[in-house]
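Practice problem 4.
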């Protein structure tokens, strides 16, 4: 009876009110975002990416090749590799808990630490409260609306690699289907690009048929995905080179810029040189997300 009372009190504590979504290994047991906007973008991503693979493999690939050969096998293998890395990385972004639930957070406020009145816990430097997730995130970078969760110390590696593979996949798909798109629209080059910008107007004036509108629209979605992934990737690379989170970039905080190699290790882990191949590669991080070496504390290794 006493244990049941303690359990009830624990589950109603502000900092652990969503604890039933986290298992003993610090992983979420549900992948569906609780925010309506996040759910819509999450649905768009989980449907759109597999559809793109089916589109390229079921429509575009047969246009170029009528029989299975080495080139076909190469494209299928490459697409499978990219697709696997995108979804496995993004799944881990969602499944791995980025908050401080599984970390030891002291009851006494340490120097440089802060106090969150919402979660009622002391939080370490570089950690902030997310009002969408309604929890404090260790080394919070930002809230990702497509996955419906925050990117922080424990899942930043998987977010970064997920974006990289989305960028590679979008670039690969756009390049691969270019001849198919051009031949389907089948207009002079100037009208071709005008049709890509506004395919519905071209349909109204008889420039293309309904199938041409579908092809042009899907090609535009691929371009939008490429631009969006490229933008996110540019911001991430810039922050990593400076040893910053998104919050620290906005407020010009450069206290944790050690070296480029150390900055990469802080995100990708000790085995970062091979961790990019697959999220299945174990690449442990250096610390626990509560203490970070500052620039003025770093002593480069010396040759003796």
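Answer key:
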């Amino acid at each position: 009876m006493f244990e049941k009372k303690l359990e009830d009190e624990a589950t109603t504590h502000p900092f652990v009110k969503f604890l039933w979504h986290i298992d003993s290994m610090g992983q979420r047991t549900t992948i569906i975002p609780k925010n309506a906007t996040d759910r819509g973008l999450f649905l768009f991503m989980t449907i759109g990416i597999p559809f793109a693979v089916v589109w390229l493999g079921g429509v575009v690939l047969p246009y170029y090749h009528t029989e299975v050969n080495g080139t076909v096998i190469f494209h299928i293998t490459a697409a499978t590799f990219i697709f696997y890395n995108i979804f496995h990385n993004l799944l881990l972004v969602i499944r791995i808990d980025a908050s401080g639930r599984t970390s030891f957070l002291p009851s006494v406020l340490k120097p440089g630490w802060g106090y969150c009145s919402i979660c009622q816990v002391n939080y370490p430097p570089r950690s902030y409260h997310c009002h969408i997730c309604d929890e404090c995130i260790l080394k919070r970078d930002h809230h990702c609306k497509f996955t419906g969760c925050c990117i922080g110390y424990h899942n930043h590696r998987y977010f970064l690699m997920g974006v990289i593979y989305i960028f590679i996949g979008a670039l690969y798909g756009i390049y691969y289907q270019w001849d198919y798109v051009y031949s389907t629209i089948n207009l002079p080059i100037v009208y071709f690009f005008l049709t890509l910008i506004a395919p519905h107007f071209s349909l109204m004036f008889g420039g293309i048929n309904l199938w041409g509108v579908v092809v042009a629209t899907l090609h535009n979605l691929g371009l939008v995905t490429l631009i969006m992934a490229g933008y996110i990737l540019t911001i991430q690379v810039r922050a990593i080179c400076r040893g910053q989170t998104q919050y620290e970039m906005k407020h010009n905080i450069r206290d944790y810029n050690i070296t480029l190699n150390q900055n990469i290790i802080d995100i990708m882990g000790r085995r970062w040189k091979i961790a990019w191949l697959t999220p299945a590669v174990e690449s442990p991080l250096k610390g626990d997300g509560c203490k970070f070496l500052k620039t003025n504390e770093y002593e480069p290794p010396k040759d003796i």
